[in-house]
Structures are given as C-alpha cells and as structure tokens.
Design goal:
Layout (H helix, E strand, L loop, with lengths): L3 H13 L5 H9 L20 E4 L2 E3 L2 H12 L6 E5 L5 H7 L4 E6 L2 H13 L5 E5 L13 E6 L8 H5 L1 E12 L4 E9 L2 E10 L10
Parallel strand pairs: 3-4, 3-6, 4-5, 6-7
Antiparallel strand pairs: 1-2, 7-8, 8-9
Helix pairs in contact: 1-2
Bound molecules: S-adenosyl-L-homocysteine (SAH).
S-adenosyl-L-homocysteine binds next to strand 2, helix 4 and strand 4.
Length: about 210
C-alpha cells in the first residue's frame, strides 16, 4: 500500500486535479508520506485525504499540499519560506526539496519534537524548526522571508507575518470568514497587500498561544 505504484496513482490524480508543475509532482511522488503518519494509518497514506496525527490535528490532504506548493513556487525564484503549523512535518519535507531554506513553527511541543526527529531521520537538513506561536512569525523579528505559507485557518492576517514578508513576496493562507474557508494568495507590494482568492479549503484553526 506504500509502493511506488500507489504513489504514482496519487500523482496521476493530482495531475487530473490541476497540479501541473512537474517539480511539485516529482516531490509528491518521492516524499514518503507514510512515514509522517502513525503506522496503523500508513496503508492510507497515499489516499488523497487528510488523516489524524493526534492532538486533534491532521496531516493535510496531498492535493492541498501540492496545490499550495505550486502556488508558492510561482512568481520567480525564492530562497526562503516560512511555514506556520509544522504539524507532522510533511508539508515541511515537501518544501525542503524545493526551497534552499525552510523555516517552520508549531505551537504543540510534542508535534514539533516528532517532526524534528522525523526530518532528521530522513536526513533533511535545510529546515529550521521552532516551538512557538506562529501568529508572531519567526521568533527573530528581523528575519524576512520570500514566501510564507500558513497551514491552519485564520480569521485575520497576523501583522507580524506581513512584516516578515519581503516586498514582492507571496503569502498563502486559509482565511476563515465564519462560514467557510478560502485559500488567499497575498502579495506584498509597495502600495500595500494585494489579495487573490484561490479556492475553498478546509483546515484546522490557527490557535492562539502555545499548546
Ligand atoms: N503542515 C501540516 C499541517 C498541520 S495541521 C502538514 O503538512 O500536514 C496545522 C498545524 O498548525 C497543527 O499542527 C497546529 O497545531 C498548528 N497550529 C495551529 N495554530 C498555530 C499557531 N498559532 N502557531 C503555530 N502552529 C499552529
């Protein structure tokens, strides 16, 4: 159930759903999603569905991971990306194959520690992880990122994040308006933030403070 054939089937499905970037599809084929979930669920790891990872959190659906990754790769080259919501570290691992420098923060310490161990077991070294509240961005205020990706839904765009985005940088986040969630692509321009609604999504909420 974790064979190359099963993974190829998932990639074909992603292609049919509009993921066209071959770099992204290659990474989706090669990152071992079954190692990011509990062993009891590994036979379902290449289904296109979110799965529980404990602590009331989920590993994102492969389509969503692929689509968001495709979006943050658009608009020219980017060196650094900050992820809010490491969770099990799967999206982090996908980003690590495509960006030279990946930073990711998580509010639940146990998930942060597990993700750290997993990424180190997979010999992924271009990632820095922190246990901190992602609403505050990366704990070192002076850092700025070419891309920011949030993998939990917020109802307002955290100010710290827009400050930590470079000009012409892109931030991708699920925005919850109280009824449903929309994936927003926000570009920081010298005239302010320009926001584009991409599609409906379903994420766990961005929670305040540390868990
Ligand atoms: N990126 C993950 C998705 C994890 S689900 C993947 O690849 O599957 C979203 C994660 O965001 C959860 O682990 C949750 O604990 C975390 N989260 C929620 N609010 C947060 C906050 N304020 N700061 C940091 N992480 C947060």
């Amino acid at each position: 159930m974790t064979s190359q054939r099963t993974r190829d089937r998932l990639v074909n499905r992603l292609r049919e759903q509009g993921v066209v970037n071959e770099l992204v599809l290659d990474v989706m084929r090669s990152v071992p999603r079954h190692l990011f979930v509990d062993e009891a669920l590994s036979h379902r790891a290449y289904e296109d569905t979110a799965l529980p990872i404990g602590y009331s959190q989920t590993i994102s659906q492969p389509y969503t991971v692929a689509k968001m990754t495709q979006c943050v790769l658009a608009n020219g080259s980017a060196n650094s990306i900050l992820e809010i919501g490491t969770g099990c570290g799967y999206q982090t691992a996908v980003l690590a194959s495509l960006f030279p420098q990946v930073y990711s923060v998580e509010r639940i310490e146990a998930l942060h520690k597990q993700a750290k161990q997993r990424l180190s077991d997979l010999e992924i070294y271009n990632v820095q992880l922190r246990h901190t509240d992602g609403k505050m961005g990366w704990p070192i205020q002076s850092y700025q990122f070419d891309r920011i990706i949030m993998t939990a839904a917020c109802s307002e765009v955290p100010e710290a994040l827009t400050q930590q985005l470079v000009y012409d940088g892109i931030m991708l986040l699920p925005f919850d308006n109280g009824n449903d969630q929309t994936l927003l692509q926000i570009t920081k321009t010298t005239n302010g933030l320009v926001s584009e609604a991409l599609e409906k999504v379903s994420f766990v909420p961005l929670l305040p403070g540390l868990g």
